[in-house]
Amino acid sequence: MLRRSSITSFCSQFLKSSYSHNLNYARSSSSLSSSSNPHLITSSATALDFSSKATTDFVSLTRHYGRCYWELSKARLSMLVVATSGTGFVLGSGSAVDFSALSWTCLGTMMVAASANSLNQVFEINNDAKMKRTSRRPLPSGRITKPHAIGWASSVGLAGTALLATQTNMLAAGLAASNLVLYAFVYTPLKQIHHVNTWVGAVVGAIPPLLGWAAASNDISLNAMILPAALYFWQLPHFMALAYMCRSDYAAGGFKMYSLADASGRRTALVALRNSIYLIPLGFLAYDWGVTSEWFCLESTVLTLAISAAAFSFYRDRTREKARRMFHASLLYLPVFMTGLLIHRRSDSEQLLEDNAKGFVKSASSGEALELDDNDDNQNIKAKKRQARPPVAYASVAPFPFLPAPSY
Length: 408
Ligand SMILES: CC(C)=CCC/C(C)=C/CC/C(C)=C/COP(=O)(O)OP(=O)(O)O
What we know:
Pfam families: UbiA. GO terms for molecular function: protoheme IX farnesyltransferase activity. The protein is mainly α and about 400 residues long. It folds into two domains: about 65-220, UbiA prenyltransferase (Tetracycline Repressor, domain 2, Orthogonal Bundle), CATH 1.10.357.140; about 220-350, Four Helix Bundle (Hemerythrin (Met), subunit A) (Up-down Bundle), CATH 1.20.120. It is built from 16 helices and no strands. The longest helix is centred in the first third of the chain and has 35 residues, at about 40-70. It binds farnesyl diphosphate. Farnesyl diphosphate binds near residues 117 and 205. Farnesyl diphosphate binds next to helix 4, helix 7 and helix 8.
């Protein structure tokens, strides 16, 4: 992070060196005509000086404010938010992913998340100034003024919402705008009032995948809830670990975190453990609700047992080291969980195939027609439907019609 003084000295060094370079260049390039027209030389050197100063000023200002906007937006956190929204979009995409709409969704989410994060910092200048972790942010360190930050937050937030409304749909834009309000105007002040803030923050973190799903399908259904639920439960061990590790910092900043009223850390660790365990059914629900294949149950369970083990270890031995381990386990959990969801995602056509395969088995067991519906005009799908029947399904048709049809 560049401080104001270092930026000033960097700029003046840069300006000095580029001035002398340009002056030398001006002198040498005009040396041929120097004897004939000295006025011309002076004025062209001055013009070059002026334009080079303007250019370097522009470059250093762009760099300076670019850096401030990046930090105000908490760009890495916003990119994680975009990843969750993009994953939600793909999961809600049915048979084919519309990559252009996906890009607009990611850009719109990034802009609204950047705005929400900037407003969060506008409201917490004094608190951030008192915390080691945040004191060098652009506002408390004086690198950008409050009105400038508000201007940035408002313009990027409005533009992002308008982008989502025009390029995706009103449902996605509405979710983004409501989430901004929830984060900046409810969660942020609540941090200084009551420890319930962490649970409200978990709702904020859970909305972006729903936004992505809504952008893709203009709808919110039960099976859209897998990733939002995972994000909600996941944030509790994640933030409990963070708030435990940075207890003194949060206390200095005047924030009411759960871990501050829990000297032994036992209740903090229990919250983390409980919410890690709540993640266990999600893999099974993802399969049962037709979002993923059965492989995801296995992967999700292994992953969830790993984070639960880290939470249990923290519960047994409430040290900073164990909290850090749980924090790192949570950092690993989310990208792996989302990758698993994407790899094992079942598109609409795959779901249709499987549903039809189940229908086939059912009718076979009840002694009705064994062939698929003749109205089905897609021969490929028909062929795949036949392949999709698990081998055991054949056991329940003639000559063994008395065997129960297995349900999948
Ligand atoms: C589309 C849209 C509006 C998305 C917003 C998503 C978003 C900003 C999620 C962050 C969730 C969260 C509780 C962060 C912690 O903030 P904090 O204030 O505790 O962090 P800090 O202590 O580092 O400031």
